[in-house]
Amino acid sequence: MNRSDDPYALTLDALEERVNKCTKCPLSETRTHVVFGEGDPHADLMLVGEGPGEVEDNTGHPFVGPAGHKLDDVLSSVGISRAEIYITNVVKCRPPGNRVPTKKEMEACSPYLEAQIALVNPKLIITLGNTPTQWLVPGAGGITHIHGSFIPWRGGIEIVPMFHPSYLLRNPSRSKGSPKYLTWMDIKKVRKWLDDNGRQRDSDRL
Ligand code: URA
């Protein structure tokens, strides 16, 4: 591969420029905007969703629609802000009607996600729902069984699957054992793991 074709040889900004012009799969024909991903380029915590929805497609930003607001609630319940994490999706263009992306679409987009992971180099990745979980950890059990578990991945990174925020919107109960309740348990585990294992930030040293 020519060095200029290698997504790993780029910075995040240069990679984003490249992805903005991508026509590798048919999702490029129906997108309004590419939703590359955004956040702290050196984040300890990276979140990977499935693919952009309507509001994301309209704006070019990840998780800014109803699911994004629910995600913000989950994160802020343990004091995690968007500014300190990096968020992206398995596919960077909206699947029409919000269908699940096909294997071919995910394969076409995969070098971009792989390069984002390599460049951000997070310590922990939260996969939101079954699609990103199965994509990064093929053969992992269903999300109802493995949510909240810490899966060692490629030496040095932990993957924690969690329920997709859209699923929480469809299941509003907060009672013990509900998806919302379980998500709160899971995000508290993530918070503790980051407190114990995250890089020390300048603001912590003040
Ligand atoms: N759902 C996702 O999986 N990703 C987004 O960016 C928005 C909704």
CATH architecture title:
3-Layer(aba) Sandwich
CATH topology: the name is: Uracil-DNA Glycosylase, subunit E
Helix content: 40-55%
CATH C-level category: Alpha Beta
Span between termini:
46 Å
- How many strands, what sense, and barrel or not for the largest sheet? 6 strands, mixed
Number of helices: 10
Ions and ligands: uracil
Give the total of domains: 1
For CATH, the homologous superfamily is named as: Uracil-DNA glycosylase-like domain
**Averaged pLDDT, please?**
94
Q: Classify the secondary structure makeup into a structural class.
A: alpha/beta
Q: Strand order, biggest sheet?
A: 1-3-2-4-6-5
Number of β-strand runs: 6
**Rg from C-alpha positions?**
17 Å
Question: How does this model look, in words?
Answer:
- The protein has helices at residues 12-20, 27-30, 54-59, 66-76, 103-120, 130-136, 143-146, 165-170, 179-197, 202-205, and strands at residues 38-39, 45-49, 85-89, 124-128, 151-153, 157-162.
- It has a six-stranded mixed sheet with strand order 1-3-2-4-6-5, with helices on both faces.
- It has a single domain (3-198), classed as Uracil-DNA glycosylase-like domain (Uracil-DNA Glycosylase, subunit E).
- β5 (151-153) and β6 (157-162) form a beta hairpin.
- With 206 residues, the chain is α/β, with parallel strands linked by helices.
- The mean pLDDT is 94.
- The chain contains ten helices and six strands, in the order ααββααβαβααββααα.
- The structure holds uracil.
- Uracil binds next to α4.
Write the layout of secondary structure elements.
Blueprint: H1 12-20, H2 27-30, E1 38-39, E2 45-49, H3 54-59, H4 66-76, E3 85-89, H5 103-120, E4 124-128, H6 130-136, H7 143-146, E5 151-153, E6 157-162, H8 165-170, H9 179-197, H10 202-205
Parallel strand pairs: 2-3, 2-4, 4-6
Antiparallel strand pairs: 1-3, 5-6
Residues 49-53, 56, 62-63, 65, 67-68, 89 line the site of uracil.
